[in-house]
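Bumping with the actual sequence this time:
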Amino acid sequence: MILVDSSVWIDFFNGHDKPHVEKLYQLLGQELIATGDLIMVEVLQGFSSDKDFRKAQELFEILPCFSLCSQELAFKAARNYRFLRKNGVTVRKTIDMVIGTFCIENNLDLLHADQDFKSIEKYLGLRTIYI
């Protein structure tokens, strides 16, 4: 199963011709694609058109969706963030730390287009889909 980050979904819904969007198209129908509650919030809040919002929501409704942050995962994500900081790496967005930690803890691959995940991959073993 592959969790797809908002960085990919946003470009997908905006029709951008980028390698990570092409990879998503290749994976759809071939692999089990999942999303998360926080990812959907990030994506859906950006729509200005009600019609486009509803179309995106309909797509998300058919995908498996994870609740990304429990108390236990919050503690792990904070520990992971602190570990990275001690190694001179600052992850800019808390939500990326949560998503990365969730994937590590649940043995999921992540498709993304966000530089913050590269540090999580390098230092913490996050598995990512390469483009």
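The tokens above came from a reply further down the thread. The CA atoms of residues 2 and 97 lie 17 Å apart.
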